[in-house]
Amino acid sequence: MRSLLAIAMIAVSLVLLELARMGVAVTSVEAGRTPVTLYAQPDATGPAVILAHGFAGSEQMMQGYALPLARAGYRVHAFEFLGHGRHPDPMSGDVTSVDGTTRLLVDQTLSVIDAIGPQDAPLALVGHSMATDILARVANRRPDVGPVVLISPFSQAVDATTPADLLLISGAWEPRLRAFALGAARMVDPRAVENQTVGADGILRRAAVAPFSEHVSVLHSRVARAETLAWLDRAYGRGSDVAILPTGWAILALLGGLVLLFRPVARVLPVVQQPDRRLSRGRLACVILLPAAVAPLVAVPLNPSFLPVLVADYLGLHLLVFGGLQLAMLVFWKVPMGRPSGRGLAVLLLGCAVFGLALDRYAANFWPTPDRLVVIAILTVGAVPFMVADAMLTAKASVLRRLALRAGFLASLGVAVALDFEGLFFLMLIAPVMILFYLVFGTMGRDTARRVGPLSSGLVLGFVLAWALGASFPLFLA
Description:
478 residues; alpha/beta; Rossmann fold; 2 domains; nine-stranded mixed β-sheet; two-stranded parallel ribbon; 15 helices; 54% helix; globular
């Protein structure tokens, strides 16, 4: 029954996700050294749209907007900022200064627009999160920019007159960004309310709210995407009859189906009997609290900074200290880790690769550029002992014990941020990545560990964790 449910989820999701792409040609081009993906129907002549992602994002994360706009006849140019996705060059500059990293990203966006060439109609700009500040500044410098759509917006470049044609979309669960969007609308009309279009002296504003959405799910909100299409259609005098498909739910169902399907697949592995030596509550508390306290106290003062990825070198050291301590205690207490299983390694690695392929095609970048391979290799040194210890602790643990173990690691990252907020601020972005990793790869790893022992699972998941972190976090050159 579980297998049939998983197969049905995967099949229905794939149909929906491929329907969303139907009729759209996806072409990879370059604007200088910037990778650009063009989404357009064959021979499309509609207005050009520049589509930009947020921090730690990629052009794949913006497909929820790119595909319906392309099916409506627009020519959508989605590009990747410096240091993100498959861009070969790192970010640089001062991330806290408008004249630092922000200026470099504005210049990059202007170069992409120049590479596209002159257009018959003003350009449309659509961006999410970090990109909202970049695009607002671009709109203020380019006379050939028309409608602007800022998703999860915040920018000091938005004032009472620029951008002149502006839609601001916030998720219902983004209170601070909702307040900013409404404030931008009230610069034009003090009586403006959410989901109302207001105008004065040639300035047009609307602060729209996407229900049941936060900072990531707003990228697949059907309301937000319909608002975007309607705003562009109004600006260009067009009429679009395009179905906004539930791609967000389809992605979740596809990825969830792959995880569900892995358990019956894992049954091809032989069962290797392992001694059941579960930790007492006292030892469990020790294996959670001691590494959580020691890892930041050791790693923060050392805080290496030689890798070209934000906080990657620190994270590798933190993983090594945290996982090394746990592993040492588990070995001392004679908790079994088992022996490597070639079949177990192969099956789990294949399952993770299939998941990664699906993620990369429909949701977010998962495949690294060559420059990131060194980062992944160094992160693996810390991630492997961390995940081997995690597999030993969670293979036969209850849900509550697994939650306590994972919460201990996240708490240790929080302590590290508190000890060096300025230097390790970006560690806070690791939390959602780790939660997703535990839910997906951790579940598949546990299915494997229960069959062939924790060691094979930990070895694979250590490599996959290093891969996921190395592939997703921005390259940065100080």
